[in-house]
Amino acid sequence: MAYSDFTLNEIRERFKIENKRTPILDIFTPMEASETLKEALKEVEELPIRSEKAKSEWIVVPILKELRNKNDKFFTIYSGDTLIADEKVGLRGECDFILAKDTGTFDINFPIIQIVEAKKNDVELGVPQCAAQLIGANIYNQKKGVNLDIIYGCVTTGNEWLFMLLEKDCIKINTKLYYLNEIENVLGIFQTIIDYYKNALK
User: Fold this and answer.
1) What residues have CB less than 8 Å from 174, skipping those under 6 apart?
2) What counts of helices (H) and strands (E) characterise the chain?
3) Within a 10 A sphere around the Cβ of 128, how many other Cβ atoms?
């Protein structure tokens, strides 16, 4: 079983983790995009960006690079890597993007943010996979002796961004979607998350 095979009901039954829609990350400071990112996203409007691969290359990666550079490379980016947390319960599989604390190691160190590219351009379809990856990241971290109160995630179509988190025994899914045309808000939310980890992983 892979992360993408889970449903929210299976997560509830197997891990005793509930889920609910609730406002999260609603207090943040919008972040101005650099001219480089603005130009990159403007170019997207002129191109036939339809496949997940294209959205990854033209939209998601430039945004993540922007955040990494603005945070003095606090985190590193893994794309398409396999995260093995607990094979016995199916918590393994390829992940679209894993943001992890950058400690200079070759292997994935401390996963802090899971980003799932929505299938069929439908954000809702990516929620169970992201939820499973949040649980996997939490177990992975605990095995390395890193205990975080919150693990954050996001499901995106490139245009739509839905944030979520794992806290204790509950997956909390934001009630609000954010859109690419409000990139300052998307960046601001990510920055709020990164600031949380800067404090938590001192």
Assistant:
1) 21, 22, 23, 24, 25, 162, 163, 164
2) 6, 10
3) 22
Task: Please enumerate, as own/partner, the contacts of 69-77 that have beta carbons within 8 Å and a separation of 24 or more.
Answer: 70/31, 70/191, 71/191, 71/194, 71/198, 73/102, 74/101, 74/102, 74/194, 74/197, 74/198, 75/99, 75/100, 75/101, 75/102, 75/112, 75/113, 75/194, 75/197, 76/100, 76/101, 76/102
Q: What is the pLDDT of residue 119?
A: 87
d(CA 96, CA 181): 22
Tally of CB atoms within 10 A around 154: 25
Q: Strand pairing partners for 82?
A: 94
Number of domains in the chain: 1
Its domain, for residue 39, covers 3-200
> CATH code at 165?
3.90.1570
Alpha-helical (H) ranges within the chain are 8-15, 35-44, 52-55, 61-70, 123-143, 183-200
Which tens digits make up the pLDDT trace of 152-201?
Answer: 999 999 999 999 999 999 999 999 999 999 999 999 999 999 999 999 99
Q: 40: left (phi > 0), else alpha (psi -120 to 50), else beta?
A: alpha
Residue with tokens 């496949």: 51
